Amino acid sequence: MHAAPTPAPTTPATAPARGFRRLRTIAAAAVLAAGAVAPALATAGTAHAAPALREVMFVGNNWDGTADVIESSGAFAKIGRINVVPDKTQRLAAIYLNPVNLAVYLAVQQGPGEGHDQLVDDLYSTPDGTALVASRPSFGDVVSIDLATDKVKWRFAVPGYRSDHMAVSPDGTKVAVSSSLSGTVSVLDITTGKQLGSFATGDTPHENIWTNGGKYIWNMSIGNVSTNLDDPSLDWTKGDRHITIADASTYKVVKTIDMRSRLDAFGRKDLSNAVRPAVFSPDFSKLYFQVSFFNGFIEYDVATDKITRIKTLPKNPATSDDRTTFVNDSRHHGLSVNPAGTKLCVAGTMDDYATVVDRATLQEGPLVTASKPYWATVSGDGRDCVISESGADRVTAIDFGTGQKVVSVPVGDHPQRVRIAHVPVGWTGPTS
């Protein structure tokens, strides 16, 4: 892959963060009351001898706090399951003993969690395949779970009480995690949990992507999605939403991109500038991304710093256009691109379908019925798009070539993120 043009340094945005106002105010009060919220780190366990590894997929079941491990291609058969909250009793006890922490926990549960605990947002494997690393929004942390014992190896408490999307560096040694309520991204050593650095973002940092072989981290902030002030005339209440590009060595912000002016220049003042899931073309020349409330996606040219195309996808007649009914402001949430860069796969979350789109023509293929698809990724062999159907508790593979459904596999309660991972050969679950 070719390297993308180096971002021209700009002055980072300094406007006060306004997204998730109510939760962040509570979080700030907790910091004043407690003195500080320090990351809680535990020393990693005894190192394991490097095992032979098998490629798999991790499926994070957000509402029941588990991760299903399935084959990365073919039949996508289930291999095993991991408990991502083995310390749940301990964590809840600590939350309930702190009134301010409890208020934040309940607000997250009733807001982004739709009445449920958010126990697994994002998840990856360590380079040696001996542990799963996951962000747990309701517990405000990132943990490493030993795949042999199902025990916590280390825990990192994020600033601001709520962890969100993560991304792993190309070499697998670092993990970047968004801290929703603090407006920061923390970068951790994936093996030890030690914080290596952090940088400020817009309001409610969300998606993270490593680019240029691990030289930069792109973060997308989505603003305040916890209110019903969703009418376009009230868009200003959503806070500071922009892309933040940080140097992955120094953690200094080198560029910010607010899509508001780019959307306006393209003639789409009606669209939100809250960038949701995003993917780059294989050569990093184009960025494709979804925005709040929109049934479609946008193409952005990195070199010219301009939006070049916007694709509107079909609406489901059964889906209400009432924006307040969209989960966390997202109508469509999930994008992936096949290895050849010729096809995009789109999860039409609120419209209950997924579809494969030809990247050259932007023509969509068959609309594959799916129940609240929440994510889209690529199978290990590159042939299929794999979506999580959060409304049906299953993952479904769709052939990039034909656009047709291949297979569905049942998983746990409310699957969200699906990631390629590695486990030791012969692993079928914790042994103790």
Structure report:
The protein is mostly beta strands. The chain has helices at 21-34, 88-96, 99-110, 259-265, and strands spanning 53-61, 66-71, 78-83, 122-125, 131-136, 141-146, 152-157, 163-168, 174-179, 184-189, 195-200, 205-211, 216-221, 243-247, 253-257, 275-280, 286-291, 296-301, 306-312, 335-337, 343-348, 353-358, 368-369, 373-378, 384-389, 394-399, 405-410, 415-424. The chain has a 4-stranded antiparallel sheet, with no helix packed on it. The longest helix is centred in the N-terminal third of the chain and has 14 residues, at 21-34. Mean pLDDT is 89; it is low at 1-46.
Number of strands: 28
Bin the strand percentage: 35-45%
The gyration radius over C-alpha positions equals 20 Å
Q: What's the end-to-end separation, in Å? A: 43 Å
